[in-house]
Amino acid sequence: MTISGGHRAARAAVIASAVLLVWHGAYGQKAEAPKHRLPAELRNQCGVCHACPTPTKTDPCLIVCPRVKESTGRHTPADGPGLMLMSSMTRQYGPVPFNHRAHAQMAEMSGGCYGCHHYNDTALNILPCKTCHPAERKRENVNLPDLKGAYHRQCLDCHRQWSGSPDCKSCHLEKSPGKTASQILEGYARGSKDHPPVAAPSKKVYTTREQDGTVVAFHHTDHAGRFGLSCVTCHRNEGCISCHDRRPEEARKRTAASAERDFDALHARCSSCHAEEKCETCHTAKEKGPFDHGQRTGWALRPYHAGLACSACHRTAGTFTGLKNECTGCHRNFASGTFNHAVTGLKLDEVHGGIDCADCHPGKAFGKPPSCAGCHQDKAYPAFKPGKKTGP
To answer: Tens digit of pLDDT for each residue in 109-130?
Structure first.
């Protein structure tokens, strides 16, 4: 029987494989458990989880957990439980009493319910952590934290700030053999309180070291009311320390000194919207008043437009770019002769009611006072009015 070259090569490969297996079984070490494996698209990309190039056990420099956002519906603190006991992973320590309602009342400062409950089913039911996070530490995909890791990553950032260096007993109770969950919570509930309502300030005035503008006046009412920004737009990923700093005085000074030198950190909240603004827009020699559309843009919103919400003209939420001051910019079907001039606070008389808008508003600059010079050499607005006032 003649064996072709191809068959000889295949046969040799099979024999070599068999010999390798025998050698490994006789002399090699025992087969290791399969190593943790990230999805192919995330392998060798440490930056997915770590903010620094050389993470260590003592300083892992973990970033905010990358998540795929899914809707959690619209829930309020009253929808969830009050005081609950987290006891699914009690080994060395006892369970953790968790005041869910107090945390939920302040969750808007850090992303709402989504901050902790970032996945749910199609019926918008809030799912517990263990639905997605396995209790086993050894797993194929380390991109998904195990249950213990998920619990601690949610809590430790705030509690590390809150108490400086929290030990396990700052959250975990001592083990109480024989006690039910109700009995454990009964004593703890006496000191459990709701978070009091937080009254938003109307404004905050900061003093800076800028030579040409030492004062920055931030009108909170404008941003939260007039501009329609939610709390989390500015107060994102903040912990209790933002309002309740219980750290030693020395630690506070170090943080303040570090922040004072960090230009980007000082301006982070404002620059997300005002990145293209000049410094003197905010930094002034004396306190600046609330937002005035006429002063800021040259287009006074009176009397008709004054009652409109910003979104009526600025259609993209949170974006207030300059608009053309032509009526057709908002009023798509506007045509000469169809506009009721009385809504501006001035009802035109018979003579002026039939002329073209541009005769009184050269260049269609409707944000500026009208000009009479095109027809009248001896008259000027506002001493002369081409009609009767109907408003302020």
So the answer is: 766 777 777 766 656 677 788 8
Angle separating helix axes 249-261 and 263-274, nearest 10 degrees: 60
The token duo for 313 is: 């003209």
| 47-103 per-position pLDDT tens digit | 767 888 888 877 888 776 555 445 555 677 888 888 888 887 777 788 888 888 888
pLDDT of residue 73: 56
What's the chain look like in SS3?
Answer: CCCCHHHHHHHHHHHHHHHHHHHHHHHCCCCCCCCCCCCHHHCCCHHHCECCCCCCCCCCCECCCCCCCCCCCCCCHHHCCCEEEECCCCCCCCCEEEEHHHHHHCHHHHCHHHHCCCCECCCCCECCHHHCCCCCCCCCCCCCCCHHHHHHHHHHHHHHHHHCCCCHHHCCCCCCCCCCHHHHHHHHHCCCCCCCCCCCCCCEEEECCCCCCCEEEECHHHHHHHCCCCHHHHCCCCCHHHCCCCCCHHHHHHHHHHHHHCHHHHHHHHHHHHCCCCHHHCEECCCCCCCCHHHHHCCCCCCCHHHCCHHHCCCCCCCCCCCCCCHHHCCCCCCCCCCCHHHHCEEECHHHHCCCHHHHCHHHCCCCCCCCCCCCCCCCCCCCCCEEECCC
Asked if residues 341 and 334 have their Cβ atoms less than 8 Å apart, the reply is: no
Which of 168 and 118 is assigned the larger pLDDT? 168
> How many C-alpha atoms does 77 have within 13 Å on its Cβ side?
16
User: Phi-psi bin for 326: left (phi > 0), alpha (psi -120 to 50), beta?
Assistant: beta
The DSSP bridge partners found for residue 346 are 389
* Tokens representing residue 79 in the block: 């929808």
